[in-house]
Q: What sequence folds into this?
């Protein structure tokens, strides 16, 4: 079956939601896939939330905006409320443990809690929580391998930030482990 | 809502509530602004003043295009949403056909001082009997933090990524000063809302402005030196210091023109 | 000792901006670790000495704070 | 200047006539900016209104004027502005806002020759702008096209009625000649068009109602789509306002389609052609939007061909083609940039088809 | 962010992609004003241009921006501005001036949902404004409608070429999604579009020539008519620039006609329909003006019906009807106000015709 | 043309022509202005200054919409005709892409001070290195004598048939004063051309303005208090007295800002 | 034959060109005729000249702007230059004596010189020169009678100017006389 | 006595506005009864005393006036 994965990543502005999506899309592009990345934009950002749609596909992508998703990665409560119902039956919902007060309730989808923020704190770099999350996602849905994600980061980050590559790689790996039930 | 919860006996007494966070003039609805944004402070205190003056039924407001585009979601008075920069023209239209009403605009610095320059200055020059509230956060908040005419020298914004360069793109525009020079202006003041006392002074000035309007002797103009934590890429607390240290030296508070002078 | 004044903070309105925190002359407000439904860490009153000065409420952008002060004993009504 | 036979008959300029009509139609306010060839309207109103009733303000620009209109209309007043081509272009954003916020108002465009600064001579070059909504988004404005100074008067009453009935900006599109020329007009009595302040208007929130809000912002696309559906529904319902004037069409081989000044000239050409034995009819849409597609489409069953005459490069031709829908050929005779066709050249175009 | 295989391949946002393309196409100056959903273009340029070449100025409004464009284009520079719907409405007077003065420039409209302030979500509601000249007078602008971020890049080069070859303002019309989304793009090398300062430009009168004058004012209608004839002649000569993309049309019973984002979605629906055995083809105009009337008209000889899909109330429908000229029914499926249709609902519309 | 006719021997000597009414920079073509209109005086002397400074090939002018819309019929320099009110934006566009050229606008009071308010003030605020020549005749000449923002109190125009009423429609707008308050303004002066000496002073000021432009330190702005015999419904000679008695008290001549200050 | 008279009246701004046309049109309207009056407008006015087209007809008038005329009444030299050639063969050209330096040359039309300014001076009211001219025209082409012209003036002039009616009537009569070869 | 200075007035450019008339310190310019082809009454020089002060030319809106002054005897050239 040909690949067509539609993902939403949602959270607060500062949580690296948009760059997580870009990194994923870039990695998949390097893998020769068709990709699109589409941010939410506009006044709803004022409240401090942000989200993006990422589509990775073997075929030409028609619309970059979709309303139901194969995967939702949510990093705060309002995003959970908004997107829990938008996951297709049988789909995947990953959420950040520390920000969710009322847990998801759907039972027809795969729900995984990830303590990405905590894990990032352990790594003493809270900015990489998004990479922990991405690692966890790629564990659940290995649509692109971590090596390409690192290639993508290498190309996306300005030279002067390349010293951060190792910690990002660590974060990705920790995420994978967490999702695997490890860590 | 927790606020109906009574912790002490005396709290249920009629006079106990000394600051009601939701006066009748303020619609009870969460604001869409970023955390710590002064738009919220301004909205709330404007509506407190309308409440205190008992003029809710007289007031017609005009919202701008800018982050405060939804001001009418919060302000419980009749309102019109103007096109970007045209609030003063819209207010002129309203006031001319409803001369017995109290008409005010609420406009950001992009709205009032960039695209709306002509409409603002001409409304004042005609001496329209309206109140213009000018919320100056030195940036375009709504569209993602671009330079405004009031952006400070050297300030980084999304369209001055290397800092505002005076030589290239000019100087922070002092609209309020220009307005004060026009004979049609009746009362012109600049205030801020970054500390409790600043808020108190702002309220006082605003109350005066509403009262002066009744004289029908020209335009009242109240600038609020304000913040935009998101556009400034600061925490709200940092933004308060920035106002104190950078904004106020460039935009000092005080009356620029009073009817007495 | 009973409190003479207090503030009520509407948890769901608070966005944890801390403008009230720096406005309170008593440093009586603190950012808690509690999250509200929007995911914001919220502020709580951490003093019994609140004077009801309304500073915090004045600067709160989200109208999250109401302030209560014990009314003075009512003067005997003039007959 | 009345004739003194009971009727109020005068010799008036088109620009003054529509201004006088507006006063008589109970206009509350006019906001405008001078531009040739329609400045006489503002001049007339600044002269008359102080002696009569209403508000007149010379705005600092057309952009300001249209936004004053928005404000005053939102406050429930009966309002009008007028301008000419470049000035109307500047109003496009504002008109789109007014259409979206569903405010009634009357706009008059005394069309001059474009594009750009162009000339100040009569033209019909703003047909597309007028009928397709030159501003952004899916809105339309009813467009009335007078052909005489008398209609400049009548259509003001009609325009206010339509504007208020449908809560829509309504446009009178006339060319510079109709604004500048004097003809005989009969003026309706003052106050013959009743007007109440609508309940949705911003007149101050009283305790018995929620606050009234005038806006064109519906940030969720789902809501904005609803707004659009409502607008489209409204535009469809306007079809009953379609009016036109057909002459000699029953037996016509050739139907000349024209509006405004060019329809008068075309009618003359029709008579000349009839004298020569060519069976020509004339069809004049009075409403350019909504356009009389159906009526014209029916004529395509009897007439052999159509000739559109316009003072532009052939803009209404598209509407006529849409109406005729491929059934008959549609020809075009036009002059541009402020030139006015004369009956002879239209006759020649007719004869050209006939041969 | 290049792929490192010699080609300059990146993952880019539409808004940044067209800005980068402009720099590479040798743009001398950009004047613009922020508006969602296209502000990233100005942001990108203020970041990049100081490190590369050219001029970038944040204007005080769209009205100022378009008139800065007029000035700089008149002085012979290769210039561009971009905006979104309400901002573009404000530019209509200026665009009419630029068209009349025959100055080349590139305008980008990242269309959002209207009318009025509307939404900031993707829309195609400005089709009429773009293709019929929302300003006054008989002018048109070539309109290019990209469907991918790659085309956002390619059409900048194409747009500058057309603008300069025909001395005309040229428009790229894309919806908000194309501005906001990231896709793979391959960037052409810098400096691949040569540019000389034209002889008619205002660069200072030297003794060897008369003074150069840029104007759109031709006060005698006879002259203005000549100007218009020249413009119309030019527009006719642009027909050779018509481009479109047709897929599966040879054996199609139903041809879906769509442009920009909605064409991508329509193509998906076409494939879904083909899988169900319905013979559907797709036709995508890349130039909305001049419109591929002829090519589409030819299809009317083989296809049984047409379905137009737009993110508006059905504006291109008129052009498709004009092309099909009554030969076949033309249906419409649209979403408005910022809503994007999904392939399923288009498929349903197709099936509806098929039954 | 009679002017080639020589009445006295010495007239053919090279230095004899002390005032050449048609310098190379002025196109030899009858002006379309009404008799006695100061536009003609201004055009001619601007071109004399360009001639004297020898900068014809450097200059690019921008004509407005107003009676002087055809300025390029007379001024023998490269020119662009701007949309009504937008000359300063057009000039900005030109100057930014041709930074080595001398760019000026020539604009009436309707053009510059009404519809063009925003473009004018923002060009100055950006400190565009352009020269703005502002010909203020307190009326819209072109369109038939309507009120301008600069129309004097009580003055009758075709849209203030009962005299300009301050209460209703506002005050004569002092654009030049506003401009002088902006830091982007480098040299700001107000002059007139209603007497020979006024013309001399105007020329001097204009020459300074052109020279200051070379400093590239901001906008130069020259107002000319001017007439409109047709709109004012006066003879040209009466209009000169009106300038002296009514216009100059409201719009006094002199420098408002000089680089030295 | 049905009446269709197309007239141009042209001169300087202050010469009463436009009001002469209006008075004629008004009088004809009172007579039940179809009439139109159309001024020239725009920047050409700047030079100080003005003109108007008047059409008086038994039939509905198609265009108020025509390019050839049955009659041209010209009050200054530039107008003569502009309109002499526009008079239809067999048409009428009336011109004001005092302002014309180069006389008209056409021979296929009826050319009449009128000293209207001088006549008005005799009446000690130079503003009525236009009525002298109108009188002269009506003598040549009596398309409406002088009584109706007086009615038109009465209605067009504000009450406070009605004292000027007699002198206008005199002027009309003098004009008639002049055109008759009298005066 | 030969004139020391004079003005030439381009008859076809003059519009008879009389701005030169009020500008001449000698009152040496007068409106004549002559009409030009445009029908304007034109101005003429009515003095021999013209000083060539150029006042009239400066204020003439229509560039109708050029001014001539007898050059001072040329200084002997320095060799
Ligand atoms: C005609 C037009 N141009 C541009 C925009 C986009 N826009 C929306 S708000 C805004 C500026 C907002 O800045 P400001 O007025 O300072 O308000 P703030 O958000 O800072 O409160 C702009 C440029 C628009 N909506 N309409
Ligand atoms: C957009 C637009 N609005 C209005 C006009 C009409 N118009 C032409 S010139 C003018 C004003 C002229 O006044 P001013 O600028 O003072 O120049 P003046 O003629 O007095 O020299 C106006 C309103 C126009 N051409 N374009
Ligand atoms: S973007 Fe700035 S101005 Fe807008 S809501 Fe956020 S903080 Fe306030
Ligand atoms: S009312 Fe005053 S003392 Fe009490 S919490 Fe607020 S700021 Fe502090
Ligand atoms: S100021 Fe208001 S919103 Fe901010 S932290 Fe305090 S209570 Fe919360
Ligand atoms: S109308 Fe006024 S400004 Fe225009 S040319 Fe005549 S006198 Fe000059
Ligand atoms: S040059 Fe001087 S003296 Fe001679 S005519 Fe002119 S103004 Fe008079
Ligand atoms: S100033 Fe010039 S135009 Fe006026 S009268 Fe004198 S010469 Fe003639
Ligand atoms: Mg702001
Ligand atoms: Mg003027």
A:
């Amino acid at each position: 079956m040909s690949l067509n994965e539609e993902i939403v990543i949602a959270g607060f502005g500062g949580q690296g939601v948009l760059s997580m999506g870009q990194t994923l899309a870039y990695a998949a592009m390097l893998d020769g896939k068709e990709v699109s990345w589409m941010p939410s934009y506009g006044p709803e950002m004022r409240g401090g939330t942000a989200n993006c749609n990422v589509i990775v596909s073997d075929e030409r992508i028609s619309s970059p905006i979709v309303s139901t998703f194969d995967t939702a990665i949510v990093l705060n409560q309002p995003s959970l409320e908004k997107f829990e119902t938008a996951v297709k039956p049988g789909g995947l919902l990953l959420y950040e443990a520390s920000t969710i007060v009322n847990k998801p309730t759907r039972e027809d989808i795969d729900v995984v809690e990830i303590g990405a923020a905590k894990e990032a704190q352990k790594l003493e770099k809270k900015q990489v929580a998004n990479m922990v999350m991405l690692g966890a996602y790629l564990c659940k849905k290995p649509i692109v391998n971590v090596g390409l994600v690192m290639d993508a980061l290498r190309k996306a980050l300005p030279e002067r930030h390349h010293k951060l590559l190792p910690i990002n790689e660590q974060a990705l790996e920790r995420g994978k482990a967490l999702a695997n039930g490890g860590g | 809502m927790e606020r109906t919860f009574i912790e002490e006996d005396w709290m249920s007494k009629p006079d106990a509530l000394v600051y009601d966070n939701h006066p009748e003039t303020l619609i009870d609805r969460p604001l869409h602004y970023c955390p710590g944004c002064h738009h919220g402070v301004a909205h709330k205190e404007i509506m407190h003043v309308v409440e205190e003056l008992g003029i809710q039924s007289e007031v017609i407001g005009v919202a701008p295009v800018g982050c405060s585009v939804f001001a009418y979601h919060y302000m419980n008075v009749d309102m019109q949403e103007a096109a970007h920069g045209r609030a003063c023209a819209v207010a002129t239209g309203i006031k001319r056909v409803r001369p017995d009403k109290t008409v005010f605009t609420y406009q950001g610095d992009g709205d009032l001082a960039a695209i709306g320059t002509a409409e603002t200055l001409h409304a004042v020059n005609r001496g329209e009997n309206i109140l213009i509230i000018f919320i100056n956060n030195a940036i375009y908040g709504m569209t993602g933090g671009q330079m405004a005419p009031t952006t400070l020298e050297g300030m980084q914004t999304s369209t001055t990524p290397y800092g505002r360069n005076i030589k290239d793109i000019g100087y922070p525009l002092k609209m309020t000063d220009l307005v004060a020079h026009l004979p049609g202006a009746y009362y012109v003041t600049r205030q801020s809302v970054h500390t409790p006392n600043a808020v108190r002074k702002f309220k006082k000035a605003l109350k005066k402005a509403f009262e002066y309007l009744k004289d029908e002797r020209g335009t009242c103009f109240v600038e609020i030196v304000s913040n935009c934590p998101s556009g400034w890429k600061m925490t709200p607390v940092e933004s308060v210091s920035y106002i104190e240290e950078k904004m106020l030296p460039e935009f000092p508070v005080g009356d620029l023109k009073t009817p007495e002078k | 000792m009973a409190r003479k004044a207090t503030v009520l903070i509407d948890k769901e309105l608070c966005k944890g901006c801390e403008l009230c925190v720096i406005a309170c002359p008593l440093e009586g407000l603190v950012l808690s670790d509690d999250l509200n439904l929007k995911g914001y860490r919220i502020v709580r009153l951490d003093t019994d000495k609140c004077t009801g000065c309304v500073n915090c409420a004045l600067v709160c952008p989200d109208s999250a704070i109401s302030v209560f002060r014990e009314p003075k004993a009512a003067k005997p009504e003039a007959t | 200047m009345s004739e003194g036979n009971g009727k109020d008959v005068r010799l008036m300029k088109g620009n003054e006539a529509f201004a006088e009509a507006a006063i008589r139609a109970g206009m509350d306010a006019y906001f405008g900016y001078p531009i040739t060839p329609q400045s006489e309207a503002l001049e007339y109103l600044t002269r008359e209104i102080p002696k009569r009733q209403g508000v007149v303000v010379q705005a600092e620009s057309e952009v300001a004027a249209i936004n004053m209109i928005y404000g005053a209309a939102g406050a429930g007043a009966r309002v009008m502005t007028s301008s000419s081509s470049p000035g109307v272009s500047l109003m496009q954003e504002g008109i789109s806002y007014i259409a979206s916020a569903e405010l009634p108002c009357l706009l008059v465009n005394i069309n001059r020759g474009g594009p750009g600064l162009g000339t100040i001579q009569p033209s019909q070059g703003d047909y597309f702008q007028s009928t397709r909504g030159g501003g952004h988004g899916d809105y339309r404005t009813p467009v009335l096209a007078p052909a005489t100074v008398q209609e400049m008067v009548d259509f003001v009453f009609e325009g206010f009625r339509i504007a208020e009935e449908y809560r829509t900006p309504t446009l009178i599109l006339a060319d510079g000649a109709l604004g500048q020329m004097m003809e005989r007009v009969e003026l309706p009595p003052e106050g013959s068009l009743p007007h109440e302040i609508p309940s949705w208007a911003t007149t101050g929130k009283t305790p018995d109602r929620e606050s009234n809000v005038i806006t064109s912002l519906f940030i969720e696309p789902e809501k904005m789509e609803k707004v659009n559906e409502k607008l489209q529904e409204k535009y469809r319902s306007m079809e009953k306002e379609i009016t036109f004037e057909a002459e000699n069409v029953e037996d016509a081989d050739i139907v000349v389609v024209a509006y405004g000044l060019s329809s008068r000239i075309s009618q003359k050409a029709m008579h000349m052609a009839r004298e020569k034995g060519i069976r020509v009819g004339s069809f004049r849409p009075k409403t350019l939007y909504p356009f009389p597609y159906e009526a014209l489409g029916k004529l395509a069953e009897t007439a052999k061909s159509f000739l559109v005459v316009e003072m532009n490069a052939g803009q209404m031709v598209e509407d006529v083609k849409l109406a005729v829908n491929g059934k008959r050929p549609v020809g075009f005779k036009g002059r541009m940039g402020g030139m006015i066709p004369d009956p002879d050249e239209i006759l020649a175009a007719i004869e050209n088809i006939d041969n």
Q: What stands out?
A: Chains H and D do not touch (no CB pair under 8 Å). The domain at 5-69 of chain H is CATH 3.30.70.20 (Alpha-Beta Plaits). The pocket of iron/sulfur cluster (ligand 5) is lined by residues C 9, 14-20, 43, 60, 62, 64-65 (CB under 6 Å).
